[in-house]
Amino acid sequence: MRNPGPTPRDIFNPTDPAAASIVFDAFDPEHRIDPYPRYRAAREATALHPTSIGVHLATRYADCLSIFNDARWSHAQEGDLLHPDVAASDLPASFLWMDPPDHTRLRGLVSRAFTPRTVAALRPRIEQIVAGLVDHAIDAGEIDVVSEVSYPLPLHVIGELLGVPPADYPLVQGWSRGIARGFDPDALMSPEETAARLEAARGFVGYFWSMIVERRA
């Protein structure tokens, strides 16, 4: 019989004075340069550490492994937990909030596009895209690797896989930024960012529904 792993009650004591004494905010910019001393202190104090956004940080590898392997821990409530005042229609459905069998079914469909053989076949085109990005950087005389390579490369590759016209890449990129930031907990977002998320989600869903209708026709 499989060991079901720890439950929240097993590995976290909310009255643990050691945990309560640590001032820890993983999202505080002050800790961005060197967050590790705070992580270390939290790990030594408790297995699950409370955070300012109402969720707990699992601090130890063994407990994280147990949680990932235990079906009693679910992703299905994360949307309501992180976005308590947001209607389901205002955020696109995400693998992040799905459990089997829905997650398994949809992941099976997506994984066909990312098998080793399929990805290997994309290599020449990926190298061509990278060469173009590097040539542009050489012509400009300087480069920001994140904004000019790391971000546009997967955007171009996935855009081609989905059949997005290159002229629409900036549009999709803008929506992607709004949605990606929007999946952060609402407690960490400004009203402007939540408004941008809603606009991006509606634009993104509308765009691809139109594409689906066009392809079906």
What does the overall shape look like? globular
**Which strand order do you get reading across the main beta sheet?**
1-2
Helix content: 55-70%
Percent in strands: under 5%
- Cα radius of gyration in angstroms: 21 Å
Cα distance spanning the termini: 52 Å
Helix-strand string: HHHEEHHHHHHHH
* Main beta sheet strand tally, sense and closure: 2 strands, antiparallel
| Spans of at least 5 consecutive residues with low confidence | 1-15
Number of extended strands: 2
Question: Which structural class should the secondary elements be placed in?
Answer: mainly alpha
Q: How confident is the prediction overall: mean pLDDT?
A: 82
Number of helical elements: 11
Question: Could you characterize what this model shows?
Answer:
- The protein has eleven helices and two strands, in the order αααββαααααααα.
- The chain has helices at 8-11, 17-20, 36-45, 61-68, 78-82, 102-111, 116-140, 145-150, 152-162, 169-182, 191-216; strands at 48-50, 56-58.
- The longest helix is centred in the last third of the chain and has 26 residues, at 191-216.
- The protein starts with 7 loop residues before the first helix and ends with a helix.
- Residues 1-15 have low confidence and may be disordered.
